[in-house]
């Protein structure tokens, strides 16, 4: 050994909080710990097999990669051992002392709030720490492949851990790989029973690609998983339960897949595909890196889960693509530039979207689960993937003013007489959009409007799209002409009132508001409200500009104020033409109430309150 000292280390702050949650957990599904440790052992074996492509001596004449589970009732310990890549001293410190993942604090907070956090644990890749749900002390002994030194990591789930050279006996026993020894709590001793171990492995780890050997206290070791590449088997051999188990093993999931895609591509390139669409949203779906989780294998050898085998807007898809033709020694640069891999990406992406189309048609309930969980991600493709934009637009489902979630095909089938555009409104909530005054003219004509509330909606709608020859038109941007569409609702009382003089009223309001607005126009959107704000025909929509200004903290362009000439407040502006102060107050009130209805604060809230008080008091005085 090069170092004989035992060194104590503190856990990363988030790890300490996480361990506290684990040690004092009330989670009902503690089985997760074994699934996670077996999965980590499988990853270690995968890494060894991959590194051995360039360095065959790492395996040499030694034990082939496998996983062993060893219960010891007398000692009260459960050992999960692998003959994989192993870890050296610094790797033990880095891998078992920190959570190297963005959003860690948010994850820990969400885990603390969850009644059952087992799904979050698996989704977020902190499975090792789940062992503290069942163990009050953990000892990890590891030797990295090709290294002489063996190290021991020890923790009781407190504030820190110790790393020291392994004992002579441990060093002789661990010739390569990692042993994790769990000193089980009294209420977790059931996991020493062989039938419990087999039950968990069968349920969650049957499709792990390496033999999982159960080493009982009496009798011979025996393999307890099938260790078959399920994606290489024929669909006719497999059942729905087989796919469910494979999904849970491959994706570290607890839900059921909403869609399963399994096929083999033959021809110029040969590869097997087994992909799943989850039915629930994973915790890390909106991480900034937007990385996919589809694993790349070459001839059943794991290469990487970082090959971006699908576009970012399909990053919720989980599964495996196993190529027969790619070279085993793929470097990161080759992964990015390999033309064969690019063809596989293109073909598989097209197939996934086609499968989603079929699912939407044949099994709308499961498609609705996917759309409810991943709509905000799929819609990223509407502005990123020009080639497949039309297909994605057909797939999309939108909540509308009808109260239903509908496709654009269904929307077009219900177009009103003389309606030539598909209308939409973007905002931050359905409730606020439903009360938006810009809907008034559409509502009076029975025109359905798409209500879009995902942040991504403000971006893809800026692309000026059309469906079935009908352009998508924002109700908060540019001019709207509803006149050709017949009115179906009876006229409001305001519409029976005489209108204010257009030229004079607009001139008065423009003079009062000055540079606070770009323009003042008579509205074709309003029937009962006094005013609303819209964006010009050129440039960003109001909602997109709001999002961009929040991110860049920059100034926004001035809006256009649209007014309803029949509304009493607008009529009052014209009547007060000789009273400049009152015209100013009324004009700013028209602007500021429109801002409030858009979910914004007036530019000067104090001035708004003073102005409102003056007008109310004037009304009270004349009542």
Task: Please outline what is shown here.
By secondary structure, the chain is α+β, with helices and mostly antiparallel strands. The chain has 3 domains: 7-223, Heat Shock Protein 90; 230-370, Ribosomal Protein S5, domain 2 (2-Layer Sandwich), CATH 3.30.230; 396-623, Four Helix Bundle (Hemerythrin (Met), subunit A), CATH 1.20.120.790. Mean pLDDT is 87; it is low at 100-104 and 118-125.
Domain count: the total is: 3
User: Numbering strands along the chain, what is their spatial order in the largest sheet?
Assistant: 1-6-5-4-7-3-2-8-9
First and last CA, distance: 95 Å
Q: How many extended strands?
A: 23
* Biggest sheet statistics: 9 strands, mixed
What's the architecture of the largest domain, going by CATH? Up-down Bundle
Give a structural overview.
The protein has 623 residues and is α+β, with helices and mostly antiparallel strands. The chain has three domains: 7-223, Histidine kinase-like ATPase, C-terminal domain (Heat Shock Protein 90, 2-Layer Sandwich); 230-370, Ribosomal Protein S5, domain 2 (2-Layer Sandwich), CATH 3.30.230.80; 396-623, Four Helix Bundle (Hemerythrin (Met), subunit A) (Up-down Bundle). 38% of the residues lie in helices and 18% in strands. The chain has 23 helices and 23 strands. The strands form five sheets. The protein has a nine-stranded mixed beta sheet with strand order 1-6-5-4-7-3-2-8-9. A five-stranded mixed beta sheet has the order 10-11-14-12-13, with helices on both faces. Strands 18-17-20-19 form a four-stranded mixed beta sheet. A hairpin with a 4-residue loop joins strand 5 and strand 6 (160-165). Helix 1 runs parallel beside helix 4 (104-113) and helix 10 (339-362) packs across helix 11. The protein is elongated, with a radius of gyration of 32 Å.
């Amino acid at each position: 050994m090069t170092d004989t000292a035992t060194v104590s280390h503190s856990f990363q702050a988030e790890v300490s909080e996480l361990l506290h949650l684990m040690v004092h957990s009330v989670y009902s599904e503690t089985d997760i710990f074994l699934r996670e440790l077996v999965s980590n052992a499988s990853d270690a074996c995968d890494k060894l097999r991959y590194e051995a492509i360039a360095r065959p001596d790492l395996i040499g004449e030694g034990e082939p990669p496998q996983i062993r589970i060893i219960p010891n009732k007398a000692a009260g310990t459960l050992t999960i051992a692998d003959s994989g890549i192993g870890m050296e001293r610094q790797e033990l410190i880095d891998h078992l002392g920190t959570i190297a993942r963005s959003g860690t604090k948010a994850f820990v907070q969400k885990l603390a709030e969850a009644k059952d956090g087992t799904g979050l644990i698996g989704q977020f890749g902190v499975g090792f720490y789940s062992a503290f749900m069942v163990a009050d002390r953990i000892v990890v002994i590891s030797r990295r492949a090709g290294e002489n030194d063996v190290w021991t990591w020890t923790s009781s789930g407190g504030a820190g851990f110790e790393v020291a050279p392994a004992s002579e006996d441990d060093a002789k026993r661990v010739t390569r790989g990692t042993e994790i020894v769990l000193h089980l709590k009294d209420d977790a001793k059931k996991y020493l029973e062989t039938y419990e171990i087999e039950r968990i492995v069968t349920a969650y780890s049957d499709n792990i690609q390496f033999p999982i050997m159960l080493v009982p206290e009496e009798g011979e070791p025996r393999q307890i998983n099938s260790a078959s590449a399920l994606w290489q088997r024929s669909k006719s051999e497999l059942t729905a339960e087989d796919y469910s188990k494979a999904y849970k093993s491959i994706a570290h999931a607890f839900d059921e897949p909403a869609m399963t895609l399994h096929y083999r591509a033959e021809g110029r390139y040969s590869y097997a595909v087994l992909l799943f669409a989850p039915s629930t949203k994973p915790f890390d779906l909106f991480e900034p890196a937007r990385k996919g989780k589809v694993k790349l294998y070459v001839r059943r050898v794991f290469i990487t889960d970082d090959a971006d085998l699908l576009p970012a807007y399909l990053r919720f898809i989980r599964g495996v693509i196993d190529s027969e033709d790619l070279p085993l020694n793929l470097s990161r640069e080759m992964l990015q530039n390999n033309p064969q891999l690019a063809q596989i990406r293109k073909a598989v992406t097209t197939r996934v979207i086609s499968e989603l189309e079929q699912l939407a048609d044949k099994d709308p309930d499961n498609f609705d689960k996917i759309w409810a969980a991943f709509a905000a991600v799929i819609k990223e493709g509407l502005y990123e993937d020009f080639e497949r934009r039309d297909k994605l637009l057909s797939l999309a489902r939108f909540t509308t003013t009808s109260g239903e979630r509908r496709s654009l095909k269904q929307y077009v089938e219900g177009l009103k007489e003389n309606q030539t555009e598909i209308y939409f409104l973007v905002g931050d909530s359905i409730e606020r959009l439903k009360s938006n005054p810009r809907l008034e003219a559409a509502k009076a004509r029975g025109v359905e409007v798409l209500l879009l509330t995902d942040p991504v909606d403000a971006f893809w709608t800026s692309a000026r799209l059309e469906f079935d020859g009908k352009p998508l038109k924002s109700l908060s941007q540019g001019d709207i002409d509803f006149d050709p569409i017949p009115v179906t609702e009876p006229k409001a009382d305001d519409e029976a009132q005489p209108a204010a003089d257009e030229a004079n009223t607009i001139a008065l309001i423009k003079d009062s508001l000055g540079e606070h607005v770009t323009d003042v126009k008579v509205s074709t959107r309003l029937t009962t409200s006094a005013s609303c704000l819209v964006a010009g025909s050129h440039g960003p929509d109001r909602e997109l500009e709001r999002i961009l200004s929040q991110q860049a903290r920059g100034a926004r362009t001035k809006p256009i104020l649209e007014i309803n000439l029949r509304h009493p407040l607008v009529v009052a502006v014209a009547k007060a033409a000789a009273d400049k102060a009152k015209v100013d107050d009324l004009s700013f009130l028209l602007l500021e109430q429109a801002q409030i209805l858009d979910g914004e604060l007036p530019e000067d809230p104090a001035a708004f309150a003073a102005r409102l008080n003056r007008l109310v008091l004037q009304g009270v005085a004349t009542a």
